[in-house]
C-alpha cells in the first residue's frame, strides 16, 4: 500500500507500526545468528539457529542453495511470530473467558485438583483424564477464531464449484464459516464447552473444529501448539484464579475485537490474578 499509494498512509498507521516492530525482531535475530557463527561447534547443535547455519555452511558452494541469510531470517521469524504470538494471544483469550465465566473456571480447577498430584505440574498426557479442561481449551480456540483468514496461492489452474481459479491466484479461506457454522455447532456464537462433551461428560472430537486450518498446508506447529496451550493453561489455573478488577463485573468484560489484525486479539482489560489454594 505504502509504495503505490503513499497519500493513504494515514489509513495504515497501525500496520506501519507493526511492520516496524517486525524489523526490530529481524535485527535481534541477525544478532543471534552473528553470535552463533562466532562460537559454533560442529559437534554440538545447540539450537535451531545452529542447525540452520550448519546447513548453510554445507551448501555454501551450491549455486542455488536456499539457505542464504534472508531465508534463514524468514524461517526464524516464522518460528517466533507463529509459535509465540498465537499461543500468547490464545492464552489471553482463555484468561479473559475464565474471568467472564467463573463457574467454568471453577470446574476446570476442580478437575485439575482431582487429576494432578499436589505439588506437581500437569503433563500433556493428563489431558486424557481431564475431559472438561480439554473441552474448554478446544472451545476457546473455536470461539475466538484466532486466525480466520490465512491466504493461500493456487499451485495449478483449478476448477472449484463452478469457478475457475488460475494458477498463482491468491485464495483466502474463511475458517469463521466453519468454526461459527450454526449447522455444526449448537450455540455457535456462545462460549460453550459442551460442544466438545457427550452426555456422560466425555471429550468428543468435532469434524468442524479447524482452528489450525485443513489440508496439506495446515499449521505445521499444530501438535506443539496443542501441548503448549494445555500445559500453560493448566499451570496458570493451578496457580491463580483470574477475576475482573474491583468494581467491574463479569458482565462488563468486553469480548469484542478492537480492530482487525492478522490475529484477532482481545480488548486490553485489567486482570486480577489471585493465588489459588
Protein described:
It is globular and about 60 Å long. The chain is mainly α. Helix 3 (69-100) crosses helix 4 (102-115), helix 3 crosses helix 5 and helix 3 (69-100) crosses helix 7 (222-239). It has a two-stranded antiparallel ribbon with strand order 1-4. It has a two-stranded antiparallel sheet with strand order 2-3. It has a domain at 102-275: Orthogonal Bundle (Cytochrome p450), CATH 1.10.630.10. The chain is 43% helix and 7% strand. It has seven helices and six strands. The protein has helices spanning 13-38, 48-58, 69-100, 102-115, 131-144, 176-179, 222-239; strands spanning 152-153, 158-160, 163-165, 170-171, 240-244, 271-275.
Write the layout of secondary structure elements.
Layout lengths: L12 H26 L9 H11 L10 H32 L1 H14 L15 H14 L7 E2 L4 E3 L2 E3 L4 E2 L4 H4 L42 H18 E5 L26 E5 L2
Antiparallel strand pairs: 1-4, 2-3, 5-6
Helix pairs in contact: 3-4, 3-5, 3-7
The number of helices is: 7
Low-confidence runs of at least 5 consecutive residues: none
Please trace the helix and strand order, writing H or E for each element: HHHHHEEEEHHEE
What proportion of the residues is helical, as a percent range?
A: 40-55%
**Strands side by side in the biggest sheet:** 1-4
Features of the shown structure:
single chain; 277 residues; mainly alpha; Cytochrome p450; two-stranded antiparallel ribbon; 43% helix
Amino acid at each position: 500500500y505504502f509504495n503505490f499509494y503513499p497519500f493513504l498512509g494515514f489509513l495504515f498507521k497501525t500496520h506501519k507500526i507493526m511492520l516496524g516492530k517486525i524489523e526490530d525482531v529481524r535485527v535481534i535475530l541477525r544478532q543471534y545468528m552473528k553470535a552463533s557463527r562466532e562460537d559454533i561447534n560442529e559437534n554440538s547443535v545447540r539450537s535451531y539457529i545452529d542447525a540452520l547455519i550448519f546447513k548453510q555452511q554445507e551448501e555454501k558452494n551450491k549455486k542455488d542453495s536456499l539457505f542464504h541469510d534472508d531465508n534463514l531470517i524468514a524461517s526464524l521469524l516464522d518460528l517466533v511470530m507463529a509459535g509465540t504470538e498465537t499461543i500468547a494471544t490464545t492464552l489471553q483469550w482463555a484468561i479473559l473467558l475464565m474471568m467472564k465465566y467463573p463457574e467454568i473456571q471453577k470446574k476446570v480447577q476442580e478437575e485439575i485438583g482431582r487429576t494432578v498430584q499436589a505439588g506437581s505440574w500437569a503433563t500433556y498426557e493428563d489431558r486424557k483424564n481431564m475431559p472438561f479442561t480439554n473441552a474448554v481449551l478446544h472451545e476457546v480456540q473455536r470461539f475466538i477464531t484466532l486466525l480466520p483468514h490465512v491466504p493461500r496461492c493456487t499451485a495449478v489452474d483449478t476448477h472449484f464449484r463452478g469457478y475457475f481459479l488460475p494458477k498463482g491466484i491468491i485464495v483466502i479461506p474463511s475458517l469463521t464459516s466453519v468454526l461459527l457454522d450454526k449447522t455444526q455447532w449448537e450455540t455457535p456464537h456462545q462460549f460453550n464447552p459442551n460442544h466438545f462433551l457427550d452426555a456422560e461428560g466425555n471429550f468428543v472430537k468435532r469434524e468442524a473444529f479447524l482452528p489450525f486450518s485443513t489440508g496439506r498446508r495446515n499449521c505445521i506447529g499444530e501438535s506443539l501448539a496443542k501441548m503448549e496451550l494445555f500445559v500453560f493453561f493448566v499451570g496458570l489455573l493451578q496457580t491463580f484464579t483470574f477475576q475482573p478488577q474491583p468494581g467491574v463485573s463479569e458482565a462488563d468484560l468486553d469480548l469484542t475485537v478492537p480492530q482487525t489484525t492478522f490475529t484477532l486479539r482481545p480488548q486490553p482489560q485489567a486482570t486480577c490474578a489471585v493465588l489459588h489454594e
